[in-house]
Amino acid sequence: MTQETASLTETPMPGANTRKVFIKTYGCQMNVYDSGRMADALAVDGYAPTEVMEEADLVLLNTCHIREKAAEKVYSALGRLREHKKARAAEGKEFMIGVAGCVAQAEGEEISRREPAVDVVLGPQTYHRLPQALQKARAGERVVDTEYALEDKFEHLPDPTKVIGKPRSVTAFLTVQEGCDKFCTFCVVPYTRGSEVSRPLSQLLTEARRLVDSGVRELTLLGQNVNAWHGEDEQGMAIGLGDLLYKLAQIPGLARLRYTTSHPRDMDDRLIEAHRDLRMLMPYLHLPVQSGSDRILKAMNRRHKASEYVALIERIRSVRPDIALSGDFIVGFPGETDQDFEDTMNLVREVNYAQAYSFKYSTRPGTPGADLPDHVAEDVKTERLARLQALLLEQQQAFMQSMIGKTIDLLLEKPGRMPGQLIGRSPWLQSVNVDAKSSQIGDIIQVRITAAGPNSLFAEVAEG
Ligand code: SAH
Ligand code: SF4
Ligand code: F3S
């Protein structure tokens, strides 16, 4: 047992839980997971979470560096926090500012130089050291810790079920893999999150069981490139994400599994079999393709052709016909011609997505894409994005409409706006409102979809 976990069993110090932390999370689900773990680490240090920035003694920005705008947002938020810190100092109150996540990793010292009000800067691999960093900062040191830690942070983070008193939500994220070795030429992730590292099977099974014991019914496995997860089973045999899913599926009490985000090149046979065999593996797959043009896919270093992606989807659909597809797209990658863009539109028509994210290419200094010739003009990117988004929206709406009249399983997640109303999640990741007075959060009930809004569905409890 590590020192950090050992200290959890000690009696809390007087005055514990008097300080409050406000954590603002930007970016992907991995950051959402990390923010939760940072809150756990801080709980040991006597910090309680708050949703209200004004009452916080510590504000942590867990940042994203994926597009230029994401990083800019952080600096403008820091400017506002500096003013707040001044006001608090005038009242003689402590107010600390921490920057974590991918901007912290990418910019390090530069953050404290640009914004001296920042007390601590911690990368995604060092946030388990947060309490120590705050202590140093209180002693007047400005802490920047973005080294890739030699120790495994997960071994040093406290067990959330021991430090967080209130019951967890019925759905949870579980990071199984971090970093990426794919080096797509537009992307900062291999630089901010480092190379691919998979968490060991036993650690994951332990964390998954703890989550289920605390009331979690649906687990979403996370990784920047989640289907690159690999490990060893109890006999020392090499296993991949498909096998991990089969193992997790055995945990009593766990009802649903999902995983995100996958790379088309790592969708192996075993993973496709898992979609065929495991009813609890939800029929929803986020499988980004980025572009439908082979020329652009090559320039992006995606290392597959558009036709291979379409063939892969056909294989997955042949074993799980009801699977809903989701994707990510980038328009206006350097060198993208009208024809390349039309290829993307055609691929979207061929695949038919239930949901998707699409972005204008954003130049990221230090990535190979930044140095490519023929950057696309902003107005061209804007026009292409609008056309692509209109098509994706049309497909999403059609998918929502196709649900009307169907009877489906619904995992009830939280109270709705009206008394007696609950909000649940469909197997296809849609939010569903239902009047279900005799059911409770965590139940999986059968409902009949009655109507579709732009982003959510409405349902009634199915008879019998
Ligand atoms: N690992 C995941 C995605 C990580 S980033 C994958 O391989 O799909 C999430 C999405 O942000 C990407 O899929 C991509 O569509 C988008 N993105 C990444 N870098 C970008 C950039 N420089 N400009 C615009 N969009 C970008
Ligand atoms: Fe970025 Fe590509 Fe890795 Fe996804 S697979 S994180 S887009 S480098
Ligand atoms: Fe952003 Fe880092 Fe996630 S750059 S998308 S927060 S991995």
TrEMBL record:
EC numbers for this chain: 2.8.4.3
Lineage: Bacteria, Pseudomonadati, Pseudomonadota, Alphaproteobacteria, Hyphomicrobiales
Signal peptide coordinates: none
Localization terms from the record: Cytoplasm
Cofactors: [4Fe-4S] cluster
PANTHER family: CDK5 REGULATORY SUBUNIT-ASSOCIATED PROTEIN 1 (PTHR43020), MITOCHONDRIAL TRNA METHYLTHIOTRANSFERASE CDK5RAP1 (PTHR43020:SF2)
Protein name as catalogued: tRNA-2-methylthio-N(6)-dimethylallyladenosine synthase
Top-level enzyme category: transferase
The TRAM domain, residue ranges: 401-463
Coiled coil start-end: none
Principal location listed in the UniProt entry: cytoplasm
SMART domains, per database record: Elp3 (SM00729)
Domain (MTTase N-terminal): residue spans on this chain: 19-139
Pfam family, one: TRAM
GO molecular function: 4 iron, 4 sulfur cluster binding; metal ion binding; tRNA-2-methylthio-N(6)-dimethylallyladenosine(37) synthase activity
